Amino acid sequence: MTSPAPPTSAEPVIPVFRRTRTVVARDLDVLDHVNNVVWLRFVVELAEAHSSALGLDFASLRRLGGVWVVRRHELDYHRSANDGDEIVEETWVSAVRGARSVRHARLRCARTGALLLAATTQWAFVDSASGRPRRVPPELARRYALVAEPPP
Predict the structure, then answer these.
(1) What is the pLDDT of residues 46-75, one digit of tens each?
(2) What integer best gives the mean pLDDT of the chain?
(3) Which of 13, 14, 1, 19 is nearest to 89 (CA)?
(4) How far is residue 87 from each of residues 18, 24, 51, 81, 83, measured CA to CA in Å?
(5) Domain range holding 22?
């Protein structure tokens, strides 16, 4: 794995992106905890928020000629979350190589710090016209400061 070139001073770099969210009633399933599909939505929305914070929203990616698509999600469920629970979400990219990247996410209970969910997603950068994989452009790759594993 090669590291991307360092970003220029005008480009934002956020190695580990963090934010919080509050679980709402529509996130719950019949067991009154966050539904498995909703956890996946949280992971994807978090990745999108990180990219947007780097100035790489969907429109910006399209101007670079491509978009990210999911190749594989791995989700490990540790604890449930319920209506009104505040969740601390964090995500980081550990690899960018060729047309692929690997992104991780951890979601924790804000009140206790307990790990709720850990996820790893393999993304592919594809040409926005053809849908075929294409090498991640250097100007895009350098925006993601690679992080092996942030502290818990």
Answers:
(1) 999 999 999 999 999 999 999 999 999 999
(2) 93
(3) 19
(4) 10, 11, 20, 8, 11
(5) 17-141
The vertex-6 CA angle with 2 and 101, nearest 5°, equals 45
Any domain includes 66: yes
Summarised one tens digit per residue, pLDDT across range 85-136 is 999 999 999 999 999 999 999 999 999 999 999 999 999 999 999 999 999 9
Q: Is residue 98 part of a domain?
A: yes
The secondary structure of 81-133 as a DSSP string is --TT-EEEEEEEEEEEETTEEEEEEEEEETTT--EEEEEEEEEEEEETTT--B
Q: Is residue 152 part of a domain?
A: no
Is residue 136 in a domain?
yes
